[in-house]
Design a protein that fits this description.
Elements lengths: L5 H23 L3 H6 L3 H28 L2 H27 L7 H21 L8
Helix pairs in contact: 1-3, 3-4, 4-5
């Protein structure tokens, strides 16, 4: 691998994808009663979906970092990882425990996810244009 962080972004993206599928499956079957008890099925599904979206984003970012070697893609990955832990983690925790205080982390995680996407935009716009002669 050209960039040492590429393999980690790819591995964490794959791990997040695995956890998203597991959480979706468990939320639909094994944890259904507990989620209904806390009236938090929608939050659990939202966390699972966002984890899945950003798993794909991390995989894509890892490939971009490996291919194009732009530091901005590393920052995108960091924002996605931190954002996913805070946003999805707080919603999963709230959904399973009913502890409302943990949801204070969700907006911080959401901001990190937004910063990741905005950093992706800026990094892509700054890529050199290929000129055909």
């Amino acid at each position: 691998m050209k960039h040492p962080a590429s393999k980690w972004l790819l591995a964490i993206g794959a791990l997040f994808g695995t956890l998203a599928v597991l959480s979706g499956s468990m939320g639909s079957h094994l944890l259904r009663t507990q989620l209904e008890e806390f009236n938090s099925t929608a939050n659990f599904i939202l966390a699972s979906n966002y984890l899945f979206y950003h798993a794909g984003g991390l995989l894509f970012t890892g490939l971009l970092l490996e291919r194009l070697e732009r530091r901005g893609f590393l920052y995108v990955g960091i924002f996605f990882i931190v954002g996913s832990f805070l946003f999805c983690g707080s919603l999963f925790t709230y959904s399973l425990t009913g502890l409302r205080g943990v949801t204070a982390m969700a907006p911080i995680g959401g901001v990190n996810l937004i910063l990741g996407w905005m950093t992706m935009v800026v990094t892509c716009v700054r890529l050199p244009s290929s000129k055909k002669h």
